[in-house]
């Protein structure tokens, strides 16, 4: 990672994000908390616009919006868990509350400094070809952190995602691991900014996992299939960005959505064929 061109940087960044985003997304999907991904993505957007604004106003020197985006996402992950705990039986309110506040804050920052629109576009929808070495180091460190935490606490997070009450009864500190999952999500979203953009990061996190659910008979297999779909999606996004100038985030998410819709159609057809065969067999045996 010391002397590589923009194509190699793009590929490395895409591979790392294609690995981590679907992994975290699988936990969120089985937990039925995928909306949190979009909420934290909008919080990250507020951080990005704050970083761009600070750079334009020269309030700080050489500030990287990736860092400010991560700081906002990290703070947002803690806030959203606190709001979820406060509302108790209405925990789903935490996501739209945080999303609304983040979008409003982003609009304020953007309106103050209009000359950052071009730079914001890359963070909004992804511009993998503009990944610099500093950005690649950041993505690499975030990936290592996410994979390390998953390796250390993946079993507890899986237990928590499937049945929070049973996890608590088994002695797992539910509140701590809820925060950990939110922090992992913040890490992945902040690392995904330049590959798919903050507005589309939630889609890369959830779509591969949603498609994998249709084929997997167990959670580990779901993780594997989700990663394969995620890598295929980012490969298409990077290819479109490098050769055709398409926003990498758009190409990635459109590919992931196509795979999901194709999966749903294929599974519907398979189920129809199976049910038809069963009816025929029952009719023959009658």
From TrEMBL:
<feature type="transmembrane region" description="Helical">
    <location>
        <begin position="252"/>
        <end position="270"/>
    </location>
</feature>
<keyword id="KW-0472">Membrane</keyword>
<feature type="transmembrane region" description="Helical">
    <location>
        <begin position="166"/>
        <end position="189"/>
    </location>
</feature>
<dbReference type="GO" id="GO:0043190">
    <property type="term" value="C:ATP-binding cassette (ABC) transporter complex"/>
</dbReference>
<feature type="transmembrane region" description="Helical">
    <location>
        <begin position="95"/>
        <end position="116"/>
    </location>
</feature>
<feature type="transmembrane region" description="Helical">
    <location>
        <begin position="136"/>
        <end position="154"/>
    </location>
</feature>
<feature type="transmembrane region" description="Helical">
    <location>
        <begin position="42"/>
        <end position="60"/>
    </location>
</feature>
<dbReference type="InterPro" id="IPR001626">
    <property type="entry name" value="ABC_TroCD"/>
</dbReference>
<dbReference type="GO" id="GO:0010043">
    <property type="term" value="P:response to zinc ion"/>
</dbReference>
<keyword id="KW-1133">Transmembrane helix</keyword>
<protein>
    <submittedName>
        <fullName>Zinc transport system permease protein</fullName>
    </submittedName>
</protein>
<dbReference type="GO" id="GO:0055085">
    <property type="term" value="P:transmembrane transport"/>
</dbReference>
<keyword id="KW-0813">Transport</keyword>
<feature type="transmembrane region" description="Helical">
    <location>
        <begin position="12"/>
        <end position="30"/>
    </location>
</feature>
<dbReference type="Pfam" id="PF00950">
    <property type="entry name" value="ABC-3"/>
</dbReference>
<keyword id="KW-0812">Transmembrane</keyword>
<feature type="transmembrane region" description="Helical">
    <location>
        <begin position="223"/>
        <end position="246"/>
    </location>
</feature>
<dbReference type="InterPro" id="IPR037294">
    <property type="entry name" value="ABC_BtuC-like"/>
</dbReference>
<feature type="transmembrane region" description="Helical">
    <location>
        <begin position="195"/>
        <end position="216"/>
    </location>
</feature>
<feature type="transmembrane region" description="Helical">
    <location>
        <begin position="66"/>
        <end position="83"/>
    </location>
</feature>
<comment type="similarity">
    <text>Belongs to the ABC-3 integral membrane protein family.</text>
</comment>
